[in-house]
Write a structure and sequence with these properties.
By secondary structure, the protein is of the alpha/beta class. It is about 30% helix and about 20% strand. The model is unreliable at about 225-230 (pLDDT under 50). The structure holds D-xylitol-5-phosphate and zinc ion.
Length: about 230
C-alpha cells in the first residue's frame, strides 16, 4: 500500500495546526516534519517545540526528517516532542549505528536518509536495523525543487536488497513528488511519498491527495487523471 506523507514545509505556518488537521481530514495517515538547522542544510525551519505543540491536535503519524548536523544529540528531544518516526542523515556527524540504536531504544521508528550524491551501498550496513530508508530526490534544504529521476536506480537497488533480505522496509522518496513523478518512484520500489508543494500548494487537499494516490498506482506513469476521462 502506498502512503502519502505531506511535508508541512509548504504549509501556511501562521495556521499550522489547521493545516495539519485539514490534511488529516483529506485522508493521509502521516505528516512529514522537516527540521533544518541552517548548518547541515542552508536553511532553517523549526524544531521540537513546534512538533510538541502540534502533537495534541493530530492523530497522524509524525514523520520527522532531521536535516541537522548532530542528530544523536537531539533524538531524545524529538522523541519527547511526539515524533513517531525519526529520520536522520547518513551524511550527518552522528554515528549511524548508535543513532539508530538510540531512536529505537526510545520506542520510535528509525529512518536513514541519503542525499543525492550518497551511494545506496552506504546504507547497507544499517538496513537490517532500519524501519525506513529515505531517498532524497532533491538536494535537501528547500521545498519546490525539481524531481531528480536519476535517483530511481537508488530506490530500486534498496528495494531489491530489502526483498533479498526479507525486510519489511519502508522506502520513502522526498522531493519533487507530484502526480507526474510519483508513479516512477513507486514502480522502482518506493511505498511512502513525501509531497509538499504538490499538496499544500493546492486549494483542495482531498482532491490533491486523491490525485497523487491515483497517479502513484503502478502503471499510471505519466498519467495525471488517466482514470478520469469523461
Ligand atoms: C526538502 C525536504 C522536503 C520538501 C519537499 O529538504 O526534505 O520534505 O519539503 O517539498 P516538495 O514536495 O515541494 O519538493
Ligand atoms: Zn523531508
Amino acid at each position: 500500500m502506498i502512503k502519502i506523507s505531506p511535508s508541512v514545509l509548504a504549509a501556511d505556518f501562521s495556521v499550522l495546526r489547521r493545516e495539519v488537521q485539514d490534511m488529516e481530514r483529506a485522508g493521509v495517515s502521516m505528516i512529514h516534519l522537516d527540521v533544518m538547522d541552517g548548518h547541515f542544510v542552508p536553511n532553517l525551519s523549526f524544531g521540537a517545540p513546534v512538533i510538541r505543540s502540534l502533537r495534541p491536535h493530530s492523530g497522524l503519524v509524525f514523520d520527522v526528517h532531521l536535516m541537522i548536523s548532530d542528530p544523536l544529540r537531539y533524538v531524545e528531544d524529538y522523541a519527547a516532542a511526539g515524533a513517531d518516526i525519526i529520520t536522520f542523515h547518513l551524511e550527518s556527524d552522528s554515528g549511524p549505528a548508535e543513532t539508530i540504536r538510540k531512536i529505537k531504544g526510545l520506542g520510535k521508528k528509525a529512518g536513514l536518509a541519503l542525499k543525492p550524491a550518497t551511494p545506496w551501498q552506504e546504507a547497507l550496513p544499517y538496513l537490517d536495523e532500519l524501519d525506513m530508508a529515505v531517498v532524497m530526490t532533491v538536494e535537501p534544504g528547500f521545498g519546490g525543487q525539481k524531481f531528480m529521476a536519476d535517483m530511481m536506480p537508488k530506490v530500486k537497488a534498496l528495494r531489491e536488497e530489502a526483498v533479498k533480505r526479507g525486510l519489511p522496509l519502508d522506502i520513502l522518496v522526498d522531493g519533487g513528488i507530484a502526480p507526474g513523478t510519483a508513479a516512477q518512484a513507486v514502480e522502482n520500489g518506493a511505498n511512502v511519498l513525501v509531497a509538499g508543494s504538490a499538496l499544500f500548494g493546492r486549494p483542495d487537499y482531498s482532491a490533491a491527495v486523491r490525485e497523487l494516490l491515483q497517479a502513484a498506482q503502478p502503471g499510471a506513469a505519466g498519467g495525471r487523471g488517466q482514470t478520469e476521462k469523461e
